[in-house]
Amino acid sequence: MQRFVNNPDFIVDDMLAGFVKVHREVSLSSKNDRVVKLNKLSATNKVGLVTGGGSGHEPAFLGYLGDHLLDAVAIGEVFASPPAQAFYDAMVEADNGNGVACLFGNYAGDNMNVKMAVQMAKEAGITVKYVTANDDVASASQETKEKRHGIAGGFFMWKIGGARAALGGTLDEVIRSAQKAVDHTRSICVGLAPCTIPAVGKANFQISPGTMEFGVGHHGEAGMKVEKLGTADKIAEEMTASLLDDFEFSAKQELAVMVSGLGSTPLMELYVLYSKVEQMLRSSGHDIFRVYIGDYVTSLDMNGASLTIMSVDEELKELLNYPASPVGIKSY
Q: Closest by alpha carbon to 180, among 151, 160, 150?
């Protein structure tokens, strides 16, 4: 393993030390050094927003701290849920007295720890409600979609929830808007080469040369099938078709589209994929409202890409367009 690492067992701590030095608008919580928070909340009377998850998906999760986005984030070890205490301490940091919305991905460890943290918050007099992203169509069938994992679609949940909170929405209104974003979002991943967890020092799963894993999970969970590696157009066609089939649209839609790299995929290739995605969506009669291309939710150094589509109405378009300043994604 050739990586920029000191002690692999402390790579998350080393990352956080660098992160708060670069982004001076955030800091480690004095309550918990695995919680990163905004130094100054954008409004003193708004609903607090928190999330959390395992490291290795940067810029998710801590990169989405920022004005009109997340207020505090619980940080786990690589691909591991933060403990309940970290989620609770993040909730305390984000609370302004108007409740806290916890918006996180649907994984067993996160579900368990968030529910424990919500109970801890209740005992402390803090009202917390939560929404779980479950956009990964490969992780469970449409009939059992409540079991699906949350992957890159969490971006839209955070963006929509953050905008609703910034506009003065109540806790129930923030939860409703975030849930609406989740309900309107689908994602699929394709892996071309595995990732390496620093503390392990070798790939945590295998993809044979000349093949690809369709529907691979963000932690290397087995996909729907292993196929011969095709052209970019063929891969994009298959990814787009899988999402359109799951949506089962009965009429023309306006769509927000994201193509995210998984860690080591060149930006060049993401644009190649998007070109075919856009062609397929338009040929199916749909319009493109907004497009996001880049590394939005990654998986260490995995070579691959995720495609995420959210169908948007007037409410979601307004919230998606509302200005926000994620600390981990800078614009110039």
A: 160
Annotation says 149 is catalytic: no
Residues 23, 57, 149, 218: which is the catalytic one?
57
What would the two tokens of residue 206 be? 């295998």
Peptide bond into 59 cis (omega under 30): yes
* Cβ–Cβ under 8 Å, residues 93 and 35: yes
Average per-residue pLDDT for the chain: 96
Tell me which of 189 and 201 has the higher pLDDT: 189
Residue-wise pLDDT tens digits, 44-64: 789 999 999 999 999 999 999
73 Cβ neighbours under 8 A, 6+ residues apart: 35, 36, 37, 50, 51, 52, 61, 62, 64, 65, 90
CA distance 226 to 214: 6
Structure tokens of 260? 């995210």
Residue 325 exposed, middle or buried by CB count within 10 Å (0-12, 13-18, 19+): middle
Q: For residue 57, indicate whether it is catalytic.
A: yes
Model pTM score: 0.96
- Among candidates 258, 261, 288, 287, which has minimal Cα distance to 274? 258
For residue 11, the 8-state DSSP code is H
DSSP string, 206-265: ---TTEEEET--TTS---SEEEE---HHHHHHHHHHHHHHHHT-SS--EEEEEEEE-BS-
CB 93 within 8 A of CB 26: no
* Phi and psi torsions of 104, nearest 5°: -140, 170
- Give me the count of residues in the chain: 332
Tell me the chain's radius of gyration from C-alpha atoms. 19
Helices and strands, number each (H, E), in the chain: 8, 14
Which residue in 23, 184, 219, 286 is the catalytic one?
Answer: 219
Q: What DSSP designation does 275 have?
A: H
In three-state secondary structure terms, 58 is coil
Report the distance separating Cα 261 and Cα 269, nearest Å. Answer: 9
